[in-house]
């Protein structure tokens, strides 16, 4: 939103806006470009924020030009990164129980899409209020339109009268920022008033006019604006023309060329795309400074990124089009970001700096969207668009943009002139992977074999490995765990040959889960350790949650329930930290089964409801669609309904589902250590088994050997904080205060049992992750 530091006047509009928001659910600030709608909205938000317990969400649309992506864009701003085709449903579900203000800024170019989305969201959430800013009204039922007019600039007879005008106050404030010490005095108030009138009282025009004081004196600005403005309705264009005329030839070229960027640009991108003719790459930084002096360009935050206001960008775009270089600029722009995507893909595949790669691509997401839109809207550019889509597979699938990725891939496949190139195979693989992720198994089954065949014909190990990895997931979903193991093993071999560490790790995790479903506990121990070591070596944290899940699933299947709840807690926290809702859904589903086995029935039912809400939120039907899952899921569900009774069971499920609105809320509920969770400690699962559980006895043995928490975690394949939790429990149960006292207790137990009383950490049935 706009910086409110230079906010002037608008008391009447703000009071009116507050009243409208109090009594209505949709208010649109409507007016000319540059009139100050965004700034009024930002100021109003500061005044009403406390009235919205669930906060304020800003959705700024000046960098978005694809109507179909608006729901996804809004969901991102609400912190939702789930993989589902139904982004509108996801967003509506998220807002259903919230008392929140949604601000949709600069939506005139997407007015129809915004109107459709707002209609659905208001119907879904009684506590939602929407504030829109637009040059066009949305035109939907219940909309209250507040017209924002330019500042009034009436005649004034004295300096004092002029100084009372908001337009003059704004000019004075902006001018003082450009020329410290500037004041509206007896010698210049009439000139300031005249300039504000020539600029029709439009705040943005006044700010740009004031910025020119750094270059020329006030009388010359008024004279230049007068020459450019025969039509008073074009006051904003006139000051832009004035600013443009005062640029050097190189600055003009840079202004035109910068208009091709969406959502801002880095200095590196500007140097690469905008150079040529009178603009050398080495000169760009100096030219940027010149455009900033004229208020054409602004630094975006504290980093080395720069952006234009949309109206200023549109002006530059018209100049570029008139000069006949817009199409060329868009090609250069697209090619630059295609090259960036390829570099990022290589680093991702190699497992290098993936956090940096994700952040880099995310910062350029608006530019990538613009590049893709140009490619698919321009005849003859579809091949380049396909290449860009294909190289960003890692981003669509693993950085929270799966739904958007599927949309771009669909366009790419539809417009691809050839089905024989590698980019087509990669795009088809993205399609298949995403299809499985959202539960469209039929689509995945249809396209992935084609990808595999393409790779086999050309002996392309990366493509073969990627296809086999997805096929392994498909087999696992169908309950074919033995076949899944074979597919994952083959995938790993091909990916290692290709040097693709990232997807090799994905295949390792899949292999681990498939091994768990096979019940091969001995093999699972080594497989889990290998996966964790591979993840640690490549700097990845995300596999740990899946390792924990796989090992816990195997132990639960073998009837071992002790300490699973404690050990899974760190994995749940890990899923929260990485915002991995899919991993969280897996873990919560398994937690429900474990609680059922531990006779914690009400909580098991609540967790089953929470898991269902989580599955719905990611658009996945994994439990219902997987033969491997449907059996234990249904068994758990039927048993809980039988034990609790239908009415109590349904209330518990509904209660659990209500806690899945946000990932943070879901995690807190999943880890809630209520009275029902503690029941086994008091006489259920551990009755008559001595002071320590089997896992705690193992940890005590390792403490006696002198191992640190980190070393214990490595031995048992758990997180260090899980090891610490076990040590804390041991200290409490034994009533001791130090690790040496634990060691003494272990020695006493071993002596009493002839040295054979403490089980080995590697024994079958004791493995943990």
UniProtKB/TrEMBL annotation:
Residues 747-769 are annotated as: Disordered. InterPro entries: NB-ARC, P-loop_NTPase, Sig_transdc_resp-reg_C-effctor, Tscrpt_reg_LuxR_C, WH-like_DNA-bd_sf. Residues 758-769 have a biased composition (Low complexity). Coiled coil: none annotated. Gene3D superfamilies: P-loop containing nucleotide triphosphate hydrolases, Winged helix-like DNA-binding domain superfamily/Winged helix DNA-binding domain. Residues 685-750 form the HTH luxR-type domain. This is LuxR family transcriptional regulator.
């Amino acid at each position: 939103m706009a910086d409110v530091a230079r906010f002037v006047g608008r008391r009447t509009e703000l009071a009116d806006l507050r009243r409208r928001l109090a009594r209505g659910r949709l208010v649109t600030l409507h007016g000319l470009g540059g009139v100050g709608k965004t700034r009024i909205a930002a100021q109003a938000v500061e005044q009403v924020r406390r009235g919205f317990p669930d906060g304020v969400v800003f959705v700024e649309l000046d960098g978005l030009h694809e109507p179909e992506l608006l729901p996804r864009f809004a969901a991102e701003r609400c912190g939702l990164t789930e993989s589902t085709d139904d982004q509108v449903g996801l967003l509506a579900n998220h807002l259903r129980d919230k008392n929140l203000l949604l601000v949709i800024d600069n939506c005139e170019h997407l007015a129809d899409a915004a109107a459709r989305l707002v209609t659905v969201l208001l119907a879904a959430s009684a506590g939602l209020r929407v504030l829109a800013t637009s040059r066009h009204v949305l035109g939907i039922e219940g909309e209250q339109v507040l017209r924002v007019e330019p500042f009034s600039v009436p005649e004034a007879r004295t300096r004092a009268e002029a100084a009372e005008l908001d337009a003059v106050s704004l000019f004075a404030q902006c001018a003082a920022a450009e020329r410290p010490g500037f004041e509206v005095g007896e010698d210049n108030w009439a000139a300031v008033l005249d300039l504000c009138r020539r600029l029709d009282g439009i705040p943005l025009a006044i700010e740009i006019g004031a910025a020119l004081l750094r270059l020329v004196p006030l009388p010359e600005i008024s004279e230049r604006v007068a020459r450019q403005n025969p039509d008073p309705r074009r006051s904003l264009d006139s000051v832009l023309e004035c600013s443009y005329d005062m640029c050097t030839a190189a600055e003009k070229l840079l202004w035109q060329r910068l208009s091709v960027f969406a959502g801002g640009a880095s200095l590196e991108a500007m140097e690469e795309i905008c150079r040529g003719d009178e603009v050398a790459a080495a000169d760009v930084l100096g030219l940027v400074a010149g455009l900033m002096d004229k208020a054409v360009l602004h630094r975006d935050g504290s980093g080395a990124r720069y952006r234009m206001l949309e109206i200023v960008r549109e002006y530059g775009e018209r100049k570029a089009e008139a000069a006949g270089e817009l199409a060329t600029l868009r090609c250069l722009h697209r090619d630059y970001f295609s090259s960036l995507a390829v570099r990022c893909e290589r680093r991702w595949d190699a497992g290098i700096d993936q956090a940096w790669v994700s952040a880099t691509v995310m910062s350029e997401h608006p530019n990538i969207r613009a590049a893709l839109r140009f490619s698919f809207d321009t005849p003859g550019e579809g091949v380049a668009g396909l290449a860009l889509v294909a190289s960003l597979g890692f981003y669509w699938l693993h950085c929270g943009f799966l739904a958007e990725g599927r949309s771009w891939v669909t366009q790419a496949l539809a417009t691809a002139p050839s089905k024989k190139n590698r980019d087509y195979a990669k795009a088809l693989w993205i399609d298949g992977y995403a299809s499985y992720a959202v539960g469209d198994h039929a689509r995945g089954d249809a396209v992935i074999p084609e990808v595999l065949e393409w790779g086999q014909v050309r002996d392309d190990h990366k493509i073969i490995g990627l296809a086999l990895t997805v096929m392994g997931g498909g087999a696992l979903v169908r309950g074919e765990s033995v076949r899944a193991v074979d597919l994952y093993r083959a995938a790993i071999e091909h990916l290692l040959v290709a040097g693709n560490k990232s997807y090799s790790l994905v295949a390792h995790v899949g292999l681990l889960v498939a091994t768990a479903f096979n019940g091969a506990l001995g093999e699972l121990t080594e497989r889990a350790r290998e996966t964790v070591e591979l993840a640690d070596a490549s700097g990845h944290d995300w596999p740990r949650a899946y390792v924990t899940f796989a090992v816990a699933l195997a132990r639960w299947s073998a009837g071992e329930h002790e300490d699973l709840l404690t050990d899974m807690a760190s994995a749940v926290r890990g899923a929260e930290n990485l915002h991995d809702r899919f991993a969280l859904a897996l873990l919560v589903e398994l937690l429900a089964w474990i609680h059922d086995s531990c006779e914690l029935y009400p909580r098991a039912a609540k967790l089953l409801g929470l898991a269902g809400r989580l599955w719905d939120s990611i658009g996945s039907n994994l439990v219902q669609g997987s033969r491997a899952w449907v059996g234990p899921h249904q068994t758990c569900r039927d048993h809980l309904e039988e034990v609790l009774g239908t009415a109590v069971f349904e209330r518990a499920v509904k209660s659990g589902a209500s806690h899945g609105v946000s990932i943070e809320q879901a995690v807190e509920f999943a880890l809630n250590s209520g009275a029902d969770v503690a029941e086994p400690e008091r006489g259920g699962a551990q009755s008559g088994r001595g002071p320590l559980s089997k896992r705690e006895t193992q940890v005590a043995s390792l403490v006696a050997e002198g191992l640190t928490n980190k070393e214990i975690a490595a031995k048992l394949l758990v997180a260090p904080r899980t090891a610490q939790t076990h040590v804390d429990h041991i200290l409490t149960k034994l009533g001791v205060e130090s690790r040496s006292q634990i060691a003494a207790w272990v020695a006493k137990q071993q002596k009493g049992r002839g040295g054979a009383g403490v089980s080995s950490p590697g024994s079958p049935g004791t493995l943990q992750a």
